[in-house]
Design a protein that fits this description.
CATH architecture of the largest domain: Up-down Bundle
Order of helices and strands: EHEEEEHHHHHH
CATH class of the largest domain: Mainly Alpha
Strand content: 5-15%
Largest sheet: 5 strands, mixed
Strand order of the largest sheet: 3-2-1-4-5
Number of helices: 7
Helix content: 40-55%
Oligomer: single chain
CATH topology of the largest domain: Glutathione S-transferase Yfyf (Class Pi), Chain A, domain 2
Shape: globular
Distance between the termini: 23 Å
Radius of gyration: 17 Å
Structural class: alpha+beta
Length: about 200
């Protein structure tokens, strides 16, 4: 398999999931400005949406959209614990979190990354993020991870998105459960491997 990624972007979520699952894969970096891959390929020929992540399977099929990709990865290694079995309430809870992260956190961050977003709107986005962080903080009370004691694909996604707080100087100390959670996930060996491979921390 090949994962098309950009360091620290939402593609880090499936990157972490691949390492946690122990699946073999290759990385192909994408330049978000030129839309070229490290091999010089026009990324729009890989994904017409022009966005990472893309997971290219060994047979040539390609999957896009992070929440779909991480569930596919998890299902390749059921014993990894990255996702509960299909058809269970626990699996629905995983999907509930993946949807919340993508719709309420990921997309709320998006305008904050765009230089042409008016400052007044960025302030609104930041306030919305803080309200959502408060909710997540409450949900993490007494838990190691989102679904309990087991690290799942939803945790890989939440960690990736909340990690962007550093870029916008959002102090997570306001939400102690979330702050402790981020440090707990950051300390996982496979998360460290992914961050080192993306050049986010020193190898």
């Amino acid at each position: 398999m090949r994962l098309y990624f950009f360091p620290g972007a939402c593609s880090m979520s499936p990157h972490i999931a691949l390492r946690e699952a122990g699946l073999p894969f290759e990385l192909e970096r994408v330049d978000p400005k030129t839309k070229k891959t490290a091999a010089g390929v026009d990324f729009f020929t890989v994904n017409a949406k022009g966005m990472v992540p893309v997971l290219e399977l060994d047979g040539g099929e390609r999957l896009t959209e992070g929440p779909a990709i991480v569930q596919y990865i998890a299902d390749q290694k059921p014993g990894s614990g990255l996702a509960p079995a299909n058809g269970t309430l626990a699996r629905a809870r995983l999907q509930e979190w993946l949807n919340y992260i993508t719709a309420e956190l990921h997309k709320t961050f998006t305008p904050m990354f765009k230089p042409d977003t008016p400052d007044a709107y960025k302030a609104i986005a930041r306030a919305n993020l803080e309200a959502r962080f408060k909710y997540v903080d409450g949900q993490l009370a007494g838990k190691q991870y989102l679904l309990g004691d087991t690290f799942t694909a939803a945790d890989a996604y939440l960690f990736t998105v909340v990690n962007w707080s550093r870029l916008h100087k959002i102090d997570l100390a306001t939400w102690p459960n979330l702050a402790a959670y981020m440090e707990r996930v950051r300390a996982r060996p496979k998360v460290q491997e992914a961050m080192k491979a993306e050049g986010l921390i020193k190898a």
